[in-house]
Each structure stands twice: as C-alpha cells, then as structure tokens.
Amino acid sequence: MTAILTTLLIYYMSSNNLITLLIAIEILLLTVTLKIISIGGYYDDSYGTIYSLIILILAGAESAIGLSLLVAYYRLRGSIGHKI
C-alpha cells in the first residue's frame, strides 16, 4: 500500500498532463479509502466505513468539478497542458 501511494505521489509531482494528474488524484483517494476500510475492518469499527463513503462522495465531486473546469479551459485555450 505504501508503494502504491509513493509511486502515485511521484507520478503526480512529475506529470505534465492535467487529465492524468486528475486520474492520479482519484487513485490516491481510492487507495487511502481502501486503507481506511481495511483498518476499520481490523478494529471492527463502523466509522471507518462511513468515513470512506464520505471520501468517495468527495472524490466524485472533485472529479466532476475538475473535468468540467478542464473542458471549459479547453474551449477557451484550445489545448490542455501546463509547464512546470
């Protein structure tokens, strides 16, 4: 699990395509959610499941808002990309 998080963080820091950056953020949120669910199951705690559902709802909202901003940016500029 730590290797996945480290790999995705390195990819997030080095990538220059905005769509793949959004995908990396989504995968990061899903791996953290999976870790919270597994810890909640280990300690027999239902709050971990509720918290993970909240994280999934926020991740979906973040994805929808981010993609709509990218579409609006593409319509204005004609290309999607950034320079580091």
TrEMBL record:
Q: Which domain of life is it from?
A: Eukaryota
Which InterPro entries did the record assign? Answer: NADH_UbQ_OxRdtase_chain4L/K (IPR001133), NUOK/Mnh_C1-like (IPR039428)
One GO cellular component this record assigns the protein to is: mitochondrial inner membrane
**Localisation per UniProt entry:** Mitochondrion inner membrane; Mitochondrion membrane
Keywords attached to this entry = Electron transport, Membrane, Mitochondrion, Mitochondrion inner membrane, NAD, Respiratory chain, Translocase, Transmembrane, Transmembrane helix, Transport, Ubiquinone
Q: Catalysed reaction(s)?
A: a ubiquinone + NADH + 5 H(+)(in) = a ubiquinol + NAD(+) + 4 H(+)(out)
Gene3D superfamilies in the record, alphabetically? 1.10.287.3510
Q: What is its main location?
A: mitochondrion
Q: Name one GO biological process term.
A: ATP synthesis coupled electron transport
Task: Reply yes or no: does the keyword Iron apply.
Answer: no
Pfam families, from UniProt? Answer: Oxidored_q2
Entry GO MF terms: NADH dehydrogenase (ubiquinone) activity; oxidoreductase activity, acting on NAD(P)H
Q: Does the keyword Magnesium apply?
A: no
Which residues span the membrane? Answer: 21-43, 49-74
What sort of enzyme, by top EC class, is this? translocase
Membrane topology according to the record: Multi-pass membrane protein
EC number from the UniProt entry = 7.1.1.2
UniProt cross-references to PANTHER family, sorted A to Z: NADH-UBIQUINONE OXIDOREDUCTASE CHAIN 4L (PTHR11434:SF16), NADH-UBIQUINONE OXIDOREDUCTASE SUBUNIT ND4L (PTHR11434)
Of which family is this protein a member? Answer: Belongs to the complex I subunit 4L family.
| Stated role | Core subunit of the mitochondrial membrane respiratory chain NADH dehydrogenase (Complex I) that is believed to belong to the minimal assembly required for catalysis. Complex I functions in the transfer of electrons from NADH to the respiratory chain. The immediate electron acceptor for the enzyme is believed to be ubiquinone. Core subunit of the mitochondrial membrane respiratory chain NADH dehydrogenase (Complex I) which catalyzes electron transfer from NADH through the respiratory chain, using ubiquinone as an electron acceptor.
Can you say what this protein is called?
NADH-ubiquinone oxidoreductase chain 4L
Q: Identify the species of origin.
A: Candida neerlandica
